[in-house]
């Protein structure tokens, strides 16, 4: 998708001050954000909130000098990522760059292409260095069926995965959120375990892609922001699960719920109770698992909550 413009994009300004936070444990400083910019042809300037970042982080990118009549295409991680203007007449475009928690460390480019008024095409790119996130390894004991599923359970898990991929492949070209993202539990500001490399019953498994909040079964879970419920059902590993599409490739996931209070297709407000904390699926005890995916990149969900105006 090239450029999505919608009249209510003003809301997005709430995200504009979003800045880089390190991934991994809570908010420990491991890579101080240093914004970088580059002047390109035809009066375009690219800017990103940090030129060096860690796996599992979120970066804010900006394109200034972008005339409203021009079409821009931005690429990150081999995909076209959505761009937005705060207002239809603004000459600044914005994007969020998700750094997947397993993105191999190295030097990458955020690339922009556009066509000038005379039909000439241009490209410009900004280098972004991705460092290894500092994620501890943890050893957990879970029920055997979650480490060595039988063929039927395996089939179910694969179907779940296909379903999730289809969801994340869809980029809704409009803003559905209405202000700040918040932690989905009341009076809770921090959680843990993001990015942890996991060894379950002695076998290495994929890293932990969400933030865990220990809480009692039955504790209400709220939508982190407004959006549309795109999944509300029981999945093999994540148990009772809700996924909300916030638009522009931004999705939040709520797992292991004891109860689901919404249905697929529902539009939810930020304060909507979508379910209750539980211990369904592959767990060691009751907690909320909260995930954030941006254009397929699994990033630390707490980063979208912190440092917003
Ligand atoms: Zn979890």
N/C terminus separation: 28 Å
Could you give a short account of the major beta sheet?
A: 7 strands, antiparallel
Question: What's the β-strand tally?
Answer: 23
Low-confidence stretches: 1-29
Small molecules in complex = zinc ion
Verbal overview:
With 309 residues, the protein is mainly beta. The chain has three helices and 23 strands. The chain has helices at 13-16, 151-168, 302-305, and strands at residues 36-39, 45-48, 52-54, 58-64, 72-76, 79-81, 84-85, 93-98, 106-115, 121-131, 137-140, 197-200, 203-205, 210-214, 220-222, 227-235, 239-247, 250-257, 259-260, 267-268, 273-276, 287-294, 297-299. Strands 14, 16, 17, 18, 20, 22 and 23 form a seven-stranded antiparallel β-sheet that branches. A five-stranded antiparallel β-sheet has the order 1-2-4-8-7, with no helix packed on it. The two termini are 28 Å apart. The relative contact order is 0.18. Residues 193, 208, 210, 212, 289 line the site of zinc ion.
From the structure above, extract its key features:
seven-stranded antiparallel beta sheet, binds zinc ion, 3 helices, 23 strands, mainly beta, 39% strand, 309 residues
């Amino acid at each position: 998708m090239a450029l999505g413009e919608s009249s209510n994009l003003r809301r997005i300004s709430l995200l504009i001050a979003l800045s880089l936070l390190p991934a991994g444990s809570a908010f420990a400083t491991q890579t101080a954000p240093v914004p970088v910019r580059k002047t390109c042809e035809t009066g375009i300037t690219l800017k990103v909130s940090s030129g060096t970042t860690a796996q599992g982080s979120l970066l804010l990118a900006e394109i200034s000098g972008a005339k409203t009549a021009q079409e821009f295409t931005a690429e990150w991680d081999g995909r076209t990522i959505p761009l937005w203007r705060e207002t239809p007449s603004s000459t600044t475009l914005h994007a969020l760059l998700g750094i997947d928690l397993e993105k191999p460390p190295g030097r990458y480019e955020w690339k922009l292409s556009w066509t000038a008024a005379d039909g000439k095409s241009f490209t410009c790119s900004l280098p972004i260095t991705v460092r290894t996130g500092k994620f501890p390894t943890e050893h957990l004991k879970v029920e055997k069926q979650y480490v060595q599923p039988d063929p039927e359970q395996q089939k179910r898990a694969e179907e779940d995965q296909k379903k999730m991929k289809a969801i994340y492949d869809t980029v809704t070209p409009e803003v559905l959120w209405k202000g700040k993202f918040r932690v989905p539990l009341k009076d809770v500001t921090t959680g843990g375990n993001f990015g942890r490399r996991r060894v379950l019953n002695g076998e290495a498994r994929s890293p932990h892609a969400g933030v865990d909040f220990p809480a009692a079964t039955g504790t209400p879970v709220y939508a982190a922001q407004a959006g549309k419920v795109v999944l509300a059902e029981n999945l093999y590993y994540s148990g009772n699960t809700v996924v909300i599409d916030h638009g522009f490739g931004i999705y939040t996931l709520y797992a292991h719920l004891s109860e689901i209070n919404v249905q697929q297709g529902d539009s939810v407000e930020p304060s909507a109770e979508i379910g209750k904390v539980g211990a369904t699926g592959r767990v060691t005890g009751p907690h909320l698992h909260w995930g954030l995916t941006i254009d397929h990149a699994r990033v630390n969900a707490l980063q979208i909550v912190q440092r917003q105006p």
